[in-house]
Amino acid sequence: APGLYLVATPIGNLEDITLRALRVLRSVDRIACEDTRQTQKLLNHFGIKTPTVSYHMHNEASRSEELAAELAAGARIAVVSDAGTPGIADPGGQIAAAAIAAGIAVFPVPGANAAISALIASGLPTERFTFHGFLPAKEGARKTALEALPRDGGVQVFYEAPHRIVDTLADVEASFGATQHVVVARELTKLHEEFLRGPVGELRGILAARASVRGEIVLLLALSAAETTVRTTSIAEEVAAVRKAEG
Ligand code: SAM
């Protein structure tokens, strides 16, 4: 049917493309790509010859109008991002909104997504979660964002850059204490996939001890309703204080 197809592509393992995604990418009139070179690699791998057109953060609004005009004329257009589900911490949402506003059918073609993949294998309760996309890069804003997280609000899911993860874990530790449980999911579906699950203080130590942290990362944590007081004194100091008080 004519319309806009939002097509998920793999986040690592190329086997994670769906049969439907392949059929749609083969049969549409063109594929709107976040980065045509990136998508061309995928298309070459699967022998797909459909023409591509680029759209990205900076031209998504203008490109959306062009594509909406083509769609109005009866075209079938697929939208893909560099990896995973378009529109999720990626462009694609504006094109979908423009198509909907123009009365054009929009079809999701679901598939890989880093946040959901991390969540289901995190070991955290999956009933309720909030996806935040990327945390602010600047320390002050990041701390503010962390402090604003709800207690007892389910799992909080973040995308994070590898060169910032140690600093972010330090911020989590400063805000919620070293024993706050966190999950770091790295390189999902890829050769070096890794899950680190445990107290934030420990995980920060493990990652800080590495020469460098590479790859793509999802960070997950759930804050319990019980107010956490961040310990500023050592246990030994506290024991000494109690002993002293007891005389
Ligand atoms: N649209 C994508 C999706 O559906 O997940 C997300 C795109 S966003 C620009 C890229 C970020 O997603 C990365 O910086 C990382 O935080 C996360 N991500 C993407 N692929 C990943 C993977 N294989 N393993 C862990 N995190 C990943």
UniProtKB/TrEMBL annotation:
Coarse class of the protein's main subcellular location: cytoplasm
Subcellular localization(s) per the UniProt record: Cytoplasm
Keyword entries, A-Z: Cytoplasm, Methyltransferase, rRNA processing, S-adenosyl-L-methionine, Transferase
Domain Tetrapyrrole methylase: 4-203
CC per GO annotation: cytoplasm
Keyword Transferase carried by entry: yes
GO MF entry, a single one: rRNA (cytosine-2'-O-)-methyltransferase activity
Similarity field: Belongs to the methyltransferase superfamily. RsmI family.
Known role: Catalyzes the 2'-O-methylation of the ribose of cytidine 1402 (C1402) in 16S rRNA.
Protein name: Ribosomal RNA small subunit methyltransferase I
Naturally occurring in which organism (per UniProt): Granulicella arctica
